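Re: the 209-residue chain
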Amino acid sequence: PNATSVTNTPPTGLANNDILIFVIYKENLNAITWPSGFTPWFTRNASDSSYQMAVAWKRAASEAGNYQASWTGSVWQDGTLLAYSGAITTGDPADATAVSQANGSTDGIACPSIVTTTANAMRIAIGQHFQGLGSGATPPAGMTERSDFDDTTVADEIQAAAGASGIKTFTRSGGIDGETVGAQIALREAGGAATPTGFMTTRTGYWGP
C-alpha cells in the first residue's frame, strides 16, 4: 500500500487543449516531482501534518504515455487525474486563485468559498479524509461527483454567474472523524465557446482498502 510515487494514465478521449488536473494524497510532507509539463497550483498540509493534498495542472498537447509524480519516503498515497474540455487554450486556466484549507479532525470535508470572475466557470471541489471515505462520500449539494476512492473525492458544477461560490462540503459515510483538507478551483471558459461540459476521468496506481 505504501509507495514513493503514483502513476496515472491519460483519460480516454483526451484531446489537445483539455486541462489535466493531477490530485495527490500522500502521508508525508516531502516535495513532489511532478510529471513533465505539470505546473503546481498548491499544496496544503493537514492540520496535524499527517498528510498532504497537492494539485497540479497541464494543458494537453499530443499526450502519450503515463504520468508519474514522485517524492522521497514510501507512504500511503493515492492519485486522481481529471481532464476538462472547454477551458481557455492559453495561459493559466484558473478563473481565480485556487483556495484550500485544513479543517482539523471532522466528519464532513469543507471546501472554502472561491470567488469566480467570469461567467460559466467550471468549479471543482476536492476533498480528502485521513480515515478514508468509508463506503463513499456524498458530494456537496448541486455538484456532480466525478471521483470517490480511497482518501480523495472530487465533484464539480458550472457556476453561471461570477461571484462567491459559498462553502461546499462533502459528507463522509460512516460518521468517523479524521483530519480533512478541502479545496475549490475554477476553470475559465474559452471565449466564444459553449459552456464547458466535456469531462473525463481516470485513476491508476494503488487504491488500497
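The radius of gyration is 16 Å.
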